[in-house]
Amino acid sequence: MGVTWAGVRERVLALREAPRWWAVFGAEGGHGFELLPALTEEQLRAVERRLGTELPEEYRAFLLEVGAGGAGPDYGLFPIRPPEPDAPPVTDHCALPFRSELTAELEREEPQRAYYPDDDAFFAAYAAWDVRRDELHDAFTEGTLCINHQGCGYYSLLAVTGPLRGTMWNDVRAIGEGVVPVEPRAGRTGHVSFTQWYLDWLDHAERRAWDTTTEPPPRVGFTSSRTPAGKL
């Protein structure tokens, strides 16, 4: 069954007029509840050819019906722009298998000198461990598309290959923890889909932006508080 995003673009853009739109994290000085125009099917196909893989259905429908970037969780969705006709394919990063199990390897303890008979054995084990950590750092995000910045070096990833295709992940390599699944909302279990992730944010944004019954947080006071559409 196809995914529909009917009315979502209108809901997002309406938040620009909400009395406390600026109280939603990432809106002031960030996306400002602006959305890029939606892609056409032809433009989206060109994007997928360049990435080397077809994007998950829910995200494809969003790009076709809502917008190609802009307002969204945290600092908003990165723009997806059609490539120029002569643009070369990007690396095969997105088309590679997504291997969520790799993060478990980070639990391997750093080699300790006390467990090795001599310095040579310890240095060899430590060098192998260090090389593997570097390999893992690059491999964690294979088969994913980075779709937003959460701040402080954290990113949101959409799995685009494998059995977990279409689910949302947090890139927390900045603190050495690899890639971990987005936590489901209270009362839910399992992996979070793109649709759940986005609509949960929109529900929260509407409650916060339209709420005039509580004391609002202080404004950050950016000089330019909104990002014009198309200038992401």
Automatic annotation (TrEMBL):
Database matches in SUPFAM superfamilies: SMI1/KNR4-like
Indicate, by first and last residue, each region the UniProt record lists as having compositional bias (Polar residues).
222-232
Gene3D superfamilies membership: SMI1/KNR4-like
Which stretch is the leader sequence? Answer: none
Q: Which domain of life is it from?
A: Bacteria
The Knr4/Smi1-like domain is annotated at: 38-204
- One family name in Pfam for this protein: SMI1_KNR4
Ranges for the region named Disordered are 212-232
Task: Give the protein's recorded name.
Answer: SMI1/KNR4 family protein
